[in-house]
Amino acid sequence: MKYCLLCGQKFLPQTSFLQLFSWRKKSEQCICNRCLARFERLPSKRCSLCSGRLLDGDPCADCQKWSQHYLGNVMKHHAVFQYNDAFHDLMVSYKRYGDYILCEVLQFLCYAELSKLKADFYVPLPTAPEHQAKRQFDTISAIYRPLVPLSFFLIKRDGFGAQGEKTRTDRLKTKQSFALRQYIGLDLNFKKILLLDDIYTTGRTLYHARDALQNKFPQAQISSFSVCR
Ligand SMILES: [Zn+2]
Ligand SMILES: [Zn+2]
């Protein structure tokens, strides 16, 4: 018996075949089936580039705009869940109230999909230093650290407000806030890099992160992943 990390009820975790052979203790079921059912997986009919819900043609209108903006150099994004009320509640508790233990819920929700994506380097998006100081932990790397080896190639410059507080239009106007860490000591050209974020909203943040890497390593093969979008 375990206690659900979201509702506190006792439940019997189901062990999957994958977990029997997994070193990922973090992938154990940590929420009850009733809470799990509140999270909505992305539909199978989704944009081939950004995993978003498709309304008309593929790729979606947003990706077509990115394609124009970047002259065809669009980025493939993988995501697992649809942003809904359950996710909103989870992220508010995790990020706004700094409830660290909830990173285990996010790990449980994404580990199976993430383990299918092989990369040479897994690069978490850095949090602004002022936010990290407030919460005492880095919300993105806390999710992914037990799941994949992380490479901290990016830094975030101080003084850029949280994306969560912005409207969609403001987000798209956000200026580049990422930079490469001063010393990387590796040639990342032709390497497969997977950028890791928690939520994909407009794509602006992840594209900025990619730009920071591709400026120095134009041949790096960069795609991205988030738990939800
Ligand atoms: Zn529950
Ligand atoms: Zn798309």
What this model shows, in words?
With 229 residues, the chain is α/β, with parallel strands linked by helices. It has one domain (41-228). Helices cover 32% and strands 17% of the residues. The protein contains nine helices and nine strands. The chain has helices spanning 17-20, 33-36, 61-69, 85-96, 103-114, 129-135, 139-144, 168-173, 204-216; strands spanning 2-3, 10-11, 40-41, 77-82, 121-124, 154-156, 178-180, 192-199, 221-228. A five-stranded mixed β-sheet has the order 3-4-9-8-5, sandwiched between helices. The protein has a two-stranded antiparallel sheet with strand order 1-2. Strands 6-7 form a two-stranded antiparallel ribbon. Strand 8, helix 9 (204-216) and strand 9 (221-228) form a beta-alpha-beta unit. The mean pLDDT is 90. The structure holds zinc ion (2 copies). One zinc ion binds next to helix 2.
What would the keywords be for this entry?
single chain; 229 residues; alpha/beta; five-stranded mixed β-sheet; two-stranded antiparallel ribbon; 9 strands; binds zinc ion
